[in-house]
Design a protein that fits this description.
- By secondary structure, this protein is mainly α.
- It has nine helices and no strands.
- It has two domains: 67 residues, Tetratricopeptide repeat domain (Serine Threonine Protein Phosphatase 5, Tetratricopeptide repeat, Alpha Horseshoe); 76 residues, Serine Threonine Protein Phosphatase 5, Tetratricopeptide repeat (Alpha Horseshoe), CATH 1.25.40.
- The longest helix has 22 residues.
- The radius of gyration is 18 Å and the shape is elongated.
- The chain starts with a helix and ends with a helix.
Length: 163
């Protein structure tokens, strides 16, 4: 099989939550074509699903080395970094994703949570409000949750300022 077929098979297995088998297919695709960005990116996502976050970050970095304009890889690298507490690095990734694709609204949400974790509440609220402004009707459930979160962090902020 050629690299694209291995990639397709890996994606099919990924969709069935067979992540280890998917990774094997992505590895075969990468062996055939080490510059196949989508195989590196997909392998990274499968590794995240298995909880292997450091290796996932390495895969996202390899995908970005090949194609630094892959906004989704910047976004997932940011999400993965945030999940291991590297919030400042995550913010940088989300900003790069948004530079490349301003419509990748998931990066605004990730950026907002990372900024909030860094104690940059006002900047976090700005990111969340930008998401709300541009969210599609399909994202209404997330908009509702984000509005609730903004309300919560504003209340916490006003408590801090009242002392």
């Amino acid at each position: 099989m050629d690299a694209d077929k291995w990639l397709k098979k890996g994606t099919e297995l990924d969709n069935l939550n067979k992540f280890s088998e998917a990774i094997d297919c992505y590895d075969k695709a990468i062996e055939i074509n080490p510059l196949l960005t989508e195989a590196w990116y997909s392998k990274g996502n499968a590794l995240v699903s298995l909880g292997n976050l450091q290796d996932a970050i390495a895969c996202f970095e390899k995908a970005l080395e090949i194609n630094p304009k892959l906004a989704e890889a910047w976004n997932y690298k940011g999400l993965t970094l945030a999940s291991i507490g590297k919030l400042q690095e995550a913010v940088v990734c989300f900003e790069k994703a948004l530079e490349i694709n301003p419509k990748l609204l998931e990066s605004l949400v990730g950026k907002g949570f990372a900024l909030n974790g860094l104690g940059k509440t006002e900047e976090a609220i700005d990111a969340f409000q930008s998401f709300i402004k541009y969210a599609s009707p399909e994202q209404e459930w997330l908009v509702t949750n984000i509005k609730g979160f903004i309300k919560k962090i504003k209340a916490e902020l006003s408590k801090k300022h009242s002392f």
